[in-house]
C-alpha cells in the first residue's frame, strides 16, 4: 500500500439494534403548498431556535415547514440587532388554502414573535 490506510471494526449486533424495519407510507399531498418568506429583526443575543419555536408554535397545523435561509447583521438594523429570514410553507390536508387563511396564520406568527421574542417584522 503506497498511501495511508485505515482499519475499522464494526459490530453488526450493535448497529442492528438501531435499525428500523417498520416502513410507513405517506401519500403525496393532494393540495398545493403556499410559500411565504418572513424576516424578523431581533436582539443579537436571541438564539435562532427560540424564534423558530415561536413561529412553529403559532403556525398551527397549516404550517408545514420552516426553513431559515438568511441571517443578516449590519448598521442598517441598529446596534445589537440581527435579521433572521425564514421560508415558510403552508398546506392543508383537505383543501386548497385561501389567501385569507394564510394571512391569518401569518398575522398570528408575527404577533407571537413580537410577544415572545420582542421581534419585529422586517419590511
Structure notes:
- The chain is flat.
- The chain has a 4-stranded antiparallel beta sheet with strand order 2-3-1-4, covered by helices on one side.
- Helix content is 29%, strand content 26%.
- With 123 residues, it is of the alpha+beta class.
- It contains 3 helices and 4 strands, in the order H-E-H-E-E-H-E.
- The protein has helices spanning 12-16, 48-59, 99-117; strands at residues 34-43, 63-72, 81-90, 120-121.
Descriptive keywords:
123 residues, alpha+beta, four-stranded antiparallel sheet, 3 helices, 26% strand, flat
Tell me the distance between the termini: 61 Å
Helix content: 25-40%
- Strand ordering within the main sheet: 2-3-1-4
The tally of helices reads 3
Question: What is the strand tally?
Answer: 4
Task: Indicate the proportion of strand residues.
Answer: 25-35%
Task: Supply Rg.
Answer: 21 Å
Q: Which sheet architecture does the biggest sheet show?
A: 4 strands, antiparallel
* Broad shape: flat
H-E string:
HEHEEHE
Structural class call reads: alpha+beta
Low-confidence stretches: none
Q: How much is the average pLDDT?
A: 92
Amino acid at each position: 500500500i503506497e498511501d495511508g490506510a485505515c482499519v475499522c471494526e464494526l459490530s453488526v449486533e450493535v448497529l442492528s439494534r438501531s435499525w428500523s424495519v417498520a416502513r410507513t407510507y405517506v401519500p403525496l399531498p393532494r393540495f398545493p403548498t403556499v410559500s411565504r418568506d418572513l424576516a424578523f429583526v431581533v436582539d443579537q443575543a436571541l438564539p435562532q431556535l427560540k424564534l423558530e419555536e415561536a413561529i412553529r408554535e403559532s403556525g398551527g397545523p397549516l404550517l408545514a415547514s420552516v426553513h431559515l435561509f438568511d441571517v443578516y447583521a449590519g448598521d442598517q438594523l441598529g446596534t445589537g440587532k440581527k435579521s433572521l429570514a425564514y421560508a415558510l410553507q403552508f398546506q392543508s390536508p383537505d383543501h386548497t388554502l385561501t389567501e385569507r387563511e394564510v394571512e391569518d396564520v401569518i398575522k398570528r406568527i408575527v404577533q407571537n414573535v413580537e410577544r415572545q421574542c420582542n421581534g419585529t417584522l422586517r419590511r
